[in-house]
Write a structure and sequence with these properties.
81% of the residues lie in helices and 0% in strands. It is mainly α.
């Protein structure tokens, strides 16, 4: 295999391990929400705050992963292997044994920290192994992850076991997948340094890259309320059964796979911002449908498929290390992960508060997040217009 070609043999093995490791995400997240709400009797606010606790830890760890990626790229394999196994041990031995809702919410931050170090580092490794086809490599990465998450969602809906046993099963699967993923990562020899980090920080300040990072934040807000908050919202407001909810989540995952496999390769040809603009529109429209106060179960389900599928398919775009050129990839991936994590952190507590005190306005958080996404689209148009004026020398 030529050195300048994508390392597809290793990537195929990595995708197999990733699929295995993604099943626990689709199984454990809704299982933990239902365990908190119905086994431990937590409030809607506390249940929605699971997302914030998780993403708070992930936000801090994600930006740290960017610095590590620029300063010590040779540590990727070790970080990924220990990180995946660490998450598995946490789900297997810690979360199932906690009896207080507040403790569960607080310690979910640990899960976020482990994920914030692990997954952005893996995304950088995948983009580097894809080389000139980083968009395609990352789109397959997220399509594979979405398929695994969808299977996990389906298992959540149809397994007839207690929620804590679902958490333990998820942890065991992660532990088994960790060596497969770690050994598939291409070894990186040599070291980086402060000069590379300085150039990376300069690259991140480019207006278009900043816009991509802001887009990740906006999508993160909607994506945050599409997690634990949506599980409770759809179940208690619209009457979706556990099995029906699992089916809707699975369908959204399949849609995101199709969309990711479309936009990822196209981004290599037409550029990330153009494709991201399309995905933002799909996600925003879906969010409006989910929040429709007069909506039916069909409208709710359709909206969720569009919004969640669009949000997931945005990931190969906002995470694509190639957007920063050959320098700064790790920082862009870390910064976009941090931005989306901060977005997912901020939305759920507000949504949970609204639901707990004014249930009739339970859909407003979805609508507000969607409107913010449309505002971000307008910002991109403004950036393009200003750059066009500078190139033509136009002044008002």
């Amino acid at each position: 295999m030529k050195s300048n070609g994508a390392n597809w043999s290793r990537l195929v093995a990595l995708y197999a391990g990733l699929f295995m490791a993604s099943i626990p995400a689709g199984l454990a997240r809704p299982a933990l929400a239902f365990h908190l709400r119905y086994d431990l009797g937590a409030t809607a606010f506390a249940t929605a705050s699971l997302t914030s606790s998780f993403m708070g830890g992930r936000a801090l760890a994600s930006i740290a992963s960017g610095f590590i990626g620029e300063l010590a790229p040779g540590m990727k394999r070790l970080i990924i292997g220990l990180g995946v196994a660490g998450i598995g041990l946490f789900l297997l031995t810690v979360l199932p044994n906690l009896g207080e809702a507040s403790t569960v919410v607080a310690l979910t931050t640990v899960w976020g920290v482990l994920g914030g170090i692990t997954w952005p580092t893996l995304q950088v490794a995948v983009a580097e192994m894809g080389r000139g086809r980083s968009g395609l490599a990352l789109s397959i990465y997220y399509a594979t992850a979405s398929l695994g998450i969808s299977l996990g969602n389906w298992l959540f809906g149809h397994l007839k076991i207690p929620y804590v046993e679902m958490l333990e099963l998820a942890g065991a699967i992660l532990i088994l997948s960790s060596p497969v993923i770690a050994l598939s990562v291409e070894p990186v020899w040599g070291t980086s340094g402060r000069r590379r980090l300085k150039r990376a920080l300069t690259r991140v300040r480019d207006p278009i890259i900043l816009w991509v990072i802001v887009s990740a934040f906006a999508i993160g807000i909607l994506n945050g309320v599409l997690r634990e908050y949506f599980y409770i919202y759809s179940h208690e407001v619209f009457g979706l059964t556990k099995a029906s909810l699992g089916d809707v989540l699975s369908i959204a995952g399949v849609f995101s796979v199709l969309l990711s496999l479309t936009v990822g390769p196209l981004s290599d040809k037409y550029g990330i911002p153009r494709l991201l603009l399309v995905v933002l529109a799909i996600t925003g429209i879906g969010g409006l449908l989910v929040g429709d106060p007069l909506g039916s179960v069909l409208i709710l389900s359709t909206g969720y498929v569009l919004a969640a599928g669009g949000a997931r398919s945005s990931l190969p775009l906002t995470r694509n290390a190639g957007i920063a050129g050959r320098i700064g990839g790790a920082m862009v991936v870390g910064a976009s992960n941090m931005a989306s994590s901060l977005g997912m952190l901020s939305g759920p507590p507000i949504a949970g508060f609204v639901y707990q005190h004014s249930p009739r306005y339970a859909g407003v958080p979805f609508i507000a997040a969607s409107l913010f996404i449309f505002a971000v689209m307008i910002i991109y148009i403004a950036i393009v217009v200003m750059r066009s004026r500078k190139r033509t020398g136009y002044t008002s």
